[in-house]
Design goal:
The protein is of the alpha+beta class. α3 packs across α4. It starts with a strand and ends in a 5-residue tail after the last strand.
Amino acid sequence: MTRIELRDLRDDDRDAAYAALRASASTWPRGQVEDRTAFDAWVNDDRVTARAIVDGATVVGLAATLDVNGDREALLAISPETPREAATEALRLLTLAEAERPLYACVAADDDPAHETLARLGFVEHARDGADIVYVLPPTLE
């Protein structure tokens, strides 16, 4: 059974996080980087909060939140060998760590696993942007 945790992305996590991002089946548009240099620049951007997705002692992916035009957006990339329920758990943990609402996510229209993961956690379709669908996790009433 997997035990998924998130931690702040450390320098020694970057190789594994970059590899997971490149190998991820996810097509989250804002997670696309051309090379390792672009990845490092993206992670170092003040608008990005990057976390390693850890299964046991192994980094299996990257979870991040970033500012996009004044809104907070979530991004998740996980290596294809990792069980699918791990992606759901990682995104759940990310939504707990990122308290700001609304929280958005943008995924390619044909990325069915990402749509299912978002829906399980309460994200709803907000808008369409070309070939992408924008989801939102709205504020909750207290």
